[in-house]
Amino acid sequence: MSSTSFQKTFTIGGALTVQRMGYGAMRITGQGIWGPPKDHAEAIRVLQRAVELGVDFIDTADSYGPHVSEELIAEALHPYKPGLVIATKGGFDRTGPNQWQMNGRPEHLQSALAGSLERLKLDRIDLYQLHRIDPNVPFEKMMEFLARAQQDGLIKYIGLSEVSVAQIKKAEAFVEIVSVQNKYSVDNRDWESVLKYCEETGKAFIPWNPLNANNATSMGKLEAIAKQLNATPHQVALSWLLHHSPNILLIPGTSSVKHLEQNLAAAAIVLDEAVMKELNSIGK
């Protein structure tokens, strides 16, 4: 799956072609992904600068804030530039900073979707993702809601988050799944089988937490390679993802314009076969 060059774009659902380096809008909220940002003006600048630099895929969720991220996106970018794809998610209740409670009840998802449409000032969500599969709600009830919302024209495409291959296949008995958003990075490849399944079936794979860096060994290797390339470890980790599989869409998040620009610059880094081999060894 690796090479020394990579495809710059990916087409979601066979119709929405986007740059593979996108932006994740979770970090423009307050501490603990709760409340408004510390610097409102900088959050607006981040969103506007992302689009100026060619980002045409922005990922958010009703639970970021909650609601704050979606409101900021509309404030900064509406009316939206043609071709800009905004993906959002539903399926969590928020009760405080860093507190997340799954809620996949159809009535909650209905309210979440309606709220997202209103806050984003959209008539239809291009990519709506079930934030989690709630084990306390019948699976078919969640899927039936998504299918109905799609039939009603409120959703164009449907995605899932933190799911196994078996769960994707189960969902596909009800709806077409065009994307999967799972935790994945150069040093955390627990979902490798899901990535491969998505690549084989033409689905976008959207990794979150693209630099796990949970141990000194992996971080040390990344730092050494980054020094060779005159880059940051985070840039190397992002570049590896772009090289690793052509269906990966990146959504690195930040609340800083400077950090945003550093992230997007990772798309210009070319990794040769020797570097890719060394990076591949980190996750094994």
TrEMBL record:
> Is Isomerase set as a keyword in this record?
no
A GO cellular component entry from the record:
cytoplasm
Mind telling me which Gene3D superfamilies this protein's record contains? NADP-dependent oxidoreductase domain (3.20.20.100)
Q: Name one GO molecular function term.
A: oxidoreductase activity
Carries keyword Cytoplasm? no
Q: Which NCBIfam families match?
A: PRK10376.1
What protein am I looking at?
Oxidoreductase
> Which species does this protein come from?
Chitinophaga parva
